[in-house]
Amino acid sequence: MRTIFAILGFVAAIGVFMLYTRPAYDDVQVLQREIEQYDLALDKAAELQELKSALLEKRKAFDPEDLERLEKMLPNHVENVRLILDLDRLAASFGMALQNVIVSKPASESAGGETVIGASLSGDQKYDSLTLKFSTRGTYSSFVSFIEELERSLRIVDVISLTIAADSSSTGLRSSENSYRYEIAIRTYWLR
């Protein structure tokens, strides 16, 4: 009888081990691996927080005016409306006004990798660009002054196309100052 109880006890122990202890032990192992991953993530977060603090201290060393100029030169987001208003204000200072403004999609969205430019933009570019087309009217000297002032502005823009045509609708200007119609396309950039 002792042998039977010993065998039944042994079978019961194996059954408890297989049905309860082993699954519980496996669950504990999985939880320990998750805890290790969370600990690594917390360590990484602490390192990143230290790095962030160090970078913020370095940023505080910069002149705020220089940081503002840098943000104007290469913003970290696209500001279509602000750019259009700035260009219109600049043109107005030379007696011109922006007309027929068309803003294209950002280059990364519109190219989509179908062209050489799209393929290069779809990579690890840290910036993006968009094209802004507009027209304006005025004298040639006013337009040259406008372009020179645009060149001196902090915002990075490339003039990618320019069309000049005689303006037949101009009236009231002195005969020595001919008015022209200018179709301009510029490309501007921002950080991603």
CATH fold name of the largest domain: Alpha-Beta Plaits
Q: Which CATH top level class of the largest domain fits?
A: Alpha Beta
Strands ordered across the widest β-sheet: 1-2-4-3
Largest sheet geometry: 4 strands, antiparallel
Q: Helix/strand/pairing class, anyone? A: alpha+beta
How does the overall form come out from the CA principal axes?
Answer: elongated
Number of helices: 6
Q: How large is the share of residues in beta strands? A: 15-25%
Helix content: 55-70%
In the predicted model, the low-confidence regions spanning at least 5 consecutive residues are 113-121
Number of strands: 4
**Distance separating the two termini:** 80 Å
What is the H-and-E element order? HHHEHHEHEE
Query: Rg, please?
Result: 34 Å
Describe what you observe in this structure.
There is one protein chain. With 192 residues, the chain is an alpha+beta fold. 56% of the residues lie in helices and 21% in strands. The chain folds into two domains: 1-61; 72-191, 2-Layer Sandwich (Alpha-Beta Plaits), CATH 3.30.70. The chain has helices spanning 2-61, 64-73, 80-92, 107-111, 116-121, 140-152; strands spanning 99-103, 127-139, 157-166, 179-191. Strands 1-2-4-3 form a four-stranded antiparallel sheet.
